[in-house]
Every structure is written in C-alpha cells, then in structure tokens.
Amino acid sequence: MGIVGSGPAGIYAADLLTKDDTLTASGTPLSIDILDKLPSPYGLVRYGVAPDHPRIKQIQGALHKILDKPGIRFLGNVNYGVDLKLEDLRRHYDAIVFATGSDRDRPLDIPGADLPGSHGAADFVFWYDSHPDVRDTWKVDGSSVAVIGAGNVAVDVARILAKDADDLLATDITDNVHQGLRTKQVTDVHVFARRGIAQGKFTPMELRELDKQPGVEVIVYPEDFELDEAALAAIEESNQVKTNVKVLQNWAIRDPRGEPRRLHLHFLHRPVEILGDERVSGLRTERMELTGDGNVRGTGEFVDHEVQAVYRAIGYLGSPVADLPFDEERGVIPNDGGRVLDLDDRPVPGVYATGWIKRGPVGLIGHTKGDALETVGNLVADRASFTPAPEPDPEAFTRLLDERRVPFTTWEGWQRLEAHEESLGESRGRKRVKVLDREEMTRICRDEPA
C-alpha cells in the first residue's frame, strides 16, 4: 500500500491498515510506504500547531509509535506530482491513499484583499512554525492589526500577534521567528467574526488561552452580545457553546485591567472592504444581526476600523493533486466515502483519499481517525478488485527514487534529525529548536557531510 501524506490522516490510515485481519490473513506481509514532500513527518502537527501549544504537539508521540511499527516505511522529501506520477505509484502499490491535507488559504473576495499588509493565516502560521518551504522573514506591521475569522486558527494567529515574543522562548521556535516577533509594535489585535457569540468555531480551551497571556487584556463588547432562539438552542444542546458563551459573558462585564496590549473580540461584524491606497490602512465592516434561525443579515450600518494589517483566517483549501480530478471550490479530491471519483463520478480503481483533502478542513485532529476508518473500511471492502502491483518489492521503489536522483529521507533519518533538534535546544537551555533550512534537514536526515 502507498500513502501520500504523513500527517495524522495518513498515519492513522496506515495504523488501521496494519490492524485489519483480512489484509494479513493470507500470510503475505503487509507493506505500507508513507510518502511526504517534506523531509520530516507529521504534517500540520509539526507545521500547523502554534508553538506555544505543546499539549497538542504531544500527539507526535502517538504518531511516532505508529511510524515505528514493522511494515510501515516513511519516505520523506518525495514530491508527488514532481518526482512521481500516479502511474509510478500504481507500478509499486496495490492501492494508494492520498492524505495531502489543506495547505493554502481560502481567498477573501472583498475590495483591497490584495493590498500589501493583507495576509493569509496559513502563510503566517507556516512562518511562525518554521516551515522549510516559506520565506524566513516576516515583518509584523503596525500597532493595530485585524484578524478575520472565528475558529481556532484565528484565535492562534491573534494570540501570537498579541504575545510577547520572549514568552515563546520556551518553545521550539527558530531564531528568525523570535527576532521577527520581537520587532513588532502591536498594541491592539482586533478579531472579527461575522456571526454571533454562540456561533464561534473555536474550542473553549483555545478561547480561554487568550486571557492567560501576561500583559494582554481581552475585551468583549456588550453591544455584540446578541442571542436569539437559535443561539439559545445551541447553548442548551452543546457544552462547548455553553462554555464559550459563559467565558465571553464574563469578559464582557468585567472591569478593564489596563494591560499594555489588548485583544478585542468583535462579533456580528462582516468584513466588506480592506481600506488603503498603497497598503492596508483600515478595515470596513458591516454590522450584522441574528435572524432567529442560526443565520445573520446585514443592517446597512458600516464601521471603519483603523488597522495597519489584516490576517484572514477564514479556512484552508487543499491543493490540486496531480493526475486526479479536483474540486476547486471545496479544495478536495472528489470522492465517495474515500473512494476517489473520476470525472464521470465513477470510482478510480485502487485510489482513495482521507483527511482534509477528502472532506475539507473541518474538525479537529481527533475527527481524522473516524475519517480514516471510513476510507480504510472501503479500501478493505474493495481489495478483491485490486490489480496487483507489477513491482511490489519495496526495494524496487527506492531504486526508482535513486534512479531519479530523489534525495529521499527515511524514518531512521528523521530520528537523527529529532536528536539534532533536541541537542540544539539543550545547548540553548530549551527542550528543542527546529531546523529551518530544508537542505540542512535533508543533509542531517541522510547523514551527509556539511
């Protein structure tokens, strides 16, 4: 089996395949290769989780145990669509699962969205998480910035923008990120949500963390505190919504603390235009009102907010995958329960999808397990119809990579890089410091001289 993508979706799929008795009942050893375009595994767990969230990053421990299993092989630095095509994978694997995730920002279709100072959250997240394929510099402009969105990514971005850079020194951030954040002059971060307080998509833990930062005061405006029948029903039906609303209520009625930095949460504000001539100078929003059925509508009242930068966190999109159909609107591979569909909506034999590239960027990491279970269940049900791979020998695949001069990395190489990053951290009195440069990562993984 071949899996493209080594984030939680791909790794969980591999784990489920190793546990399926029907795949191993024949006595033929099950061999699974997990391919990734990066030299390192773990996907967004390594490059999409805020550095001050070590609790979530601890999931790497569980993923490590899976990748350490006999029969599972990690091959990094292998760029599907560039180094390999679908026909290459079909030669070596009976079935292929694509778990390439969502790696780009959903566009914001309003005037001014292309102005300098208007940023996608994914770009900023990849920068502060030291992704090796993004630029290593980022200038955080202005004293007042806007974040558009009502999910965990928006909350993460707002928290990093408001946080004192030195408070991140206990994490695995690289020196360039620390220096970039140290130069920021941000005093006010404004988060704008189009819907009401009962409709935010952030989790209570993420929300509470906003108020646990030294020197940062969270401000909620009582005039945004509107509840209707649908909101009240949501509060009754969901403990998460109930907790979020209670936290926001307490913040709305408390006295100001006078902290030097402020994080403003604005609800029922729809962004309609990013203002500015040569670069961002403000954000115009329309006041919204609840309609009683869970929706909102515009009031015709507009408010201009003076900000010098805008970060949009309105959702991620997957990127097209070579040789497969793609739904540009949803950013996913068309599929039915994980079975990839061709242009005529017929299943493509032996080709599957799981994770965000299958369902879109919804749900937390835990939801990915159930998603993988569906895909693997359908793969197992289809196994009798698979066309056996002409070259199933695992060594034949690595020979192909060598022939194409692909400097692939391995699980053993990743463990070497892990040890190196931990030693970097130890030398600086920290637990770990990431290696930023892709070539350096590859060199360490492959144990090549500098």
* Anisotropy-based shape: globular
Q: How large, in whole angstroms, is the Cα Rg?
A: 23 Å
Distance between the termini: 35 Å
Query: What characterizes the major β-sheet?
Result: 8 strands, mixed
Strand content: 15-25%
How many separate helices? 17
Strand order of the largest sheet: 16-17-18-4-1-2-3-19
Mean pLDDT: 94
Structure description:
This protein has 17 helices and 19 strands. 34% of the residues lie in helices and 20% in strands. The chain is an alpha/beta fold. The strands form four sheets. It has an eight-stranded mixed β-sheet, sandwiched between helices. It has a six-stranded parallel β-sheet with strand order 6-14-7-8-10-9. Strands 11-12-13 form a three-stranded antiparallel β-sheet, with no helix packed on it. The chain has helices at residues 8-19, 21-24, 44-47, 54-57, 59-67, 86-92, 121-128, 152-162, 175-182, 204-209, 229-237, 239-253, 356-359, 367-382, 394-403, 411-427, 438-445; strands at residues 2-4, 32-35, 72-76, 96-98, 104-105, 118-120, 144-148, 188-193, 216-220, 261-267, 269-275, 282-290, 296-305, 309-312, 316-317, 335-336, 339-341, 347-353, 409-410. It starts with a strand and ends in a 5-residue tail after the last helix. Helix 1 packs across helix 14, helix 11 packs across helix 12 and helix 16 packs across helix 17.
